[in-house]
Amino acid sequence: MPGQPLSGASDSFYQALQARVRAWLESEAAHGVPCAALYHHLPELYRFLVAVALDTRLPTAERGGLVSTLKYIVAPHDYVPEAVLGVPGLCDDLVLAALAVDRLQRTSNPELLDEHWHLDSSAQAVAAQILDAASALVDHSVLRRLEALLPN
Question: Measuring CA to CA, which residue among 101, 93, 98 is closest to residue 62?
Fold first, then answer.
């Protein structure tokens, strides 16, 4: 549904992710991490992808790809495990979220997407900024594996 707020587990995960990323960015641990400032986009990208996935106007095939992306983001053990590395281990989640947004921008109704994005800069601009830095965030082989997770 348009404008539908997150509910239950999705909202709890969003809030925990937002707090975790914010605390890390304010800590000494974030200094020297390539593109650390980009990590602050991950909670909003997550929120956006959940909202779009819940929108019944999104074609079923697109929804399936988003659900797979969201499952990857919430999994603590993936290509770069945040359960082991902490917030820097979210780099692959960040890149995958940006890849999913980029794909949605190319394949979905722009008005539907705009209804769910609530920040000043566009979702596409945020995704482009992250994808421009992807090689600094993840290894080339990880990037290729992330791209393979999305439907063609």
Answer: 101
